[in-house]
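Below sits the subject:
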Amino acid sequence: MEELRKTIANLIKTNKEQTDYILSHFRTVQLGKDESFVDLNDKCDEVAFIKNGIIRFYYYNKRDEETTCYFAFPNEFITSIKSFNFKTESREVLKCITDAELLVIKRTDIEKLYHEIPATQKITRKIYERLSINLQKRIALLQINSAEERYQYILNHQSELLRSVPLQYLASFLGVTPQHLSRLRKSKATA
């Protein structure tokens, strides 16, 4: 809970009692590799803080293939934004690619905290801002850059993906086949 405490302190100004009260609304959830925090068509009513593990966000395309749009790492918040906000079924899947420990809070508790400690509204806004920025970066990366440039961007700015994400998920994230990603990796290794 210490990392979550630090994250909250960086987002809003609260005293120790208020922070303890906010933290009391989170519960620990352990998920194994390949378990989902949110499945397709779930109605997501929770937000999670990743204490340990890596979560992959993906959709199914028209050919029923998985398309990875985002990876979340420790000390990040996750949720299915549209499902959470509009109380609709999720079109995305949030699945663990490693064992994960999450600190989870329900929508009802978040709404309660909004009334009791209004500053908590800023936490949710910051979560949405960060998720939106990350997704916007991904869209721009795919729309503007060639496969080689996308791979180079990952090498330069998100090298943790290369160390911790299986090849097929990274290929999906980059919008290439696993075979093309292997060729990109080989060409960069020999360059």
Summary: The two ends are 44 Å apart (CA to CA). Strands lie at 27-31, 36-38, 46-52, 55-60, 66-72, 77-78, 92-96, 100-106. Residues 120-144 form the longest helix (25 residues). The chain is about 50% helix and 20% strand.
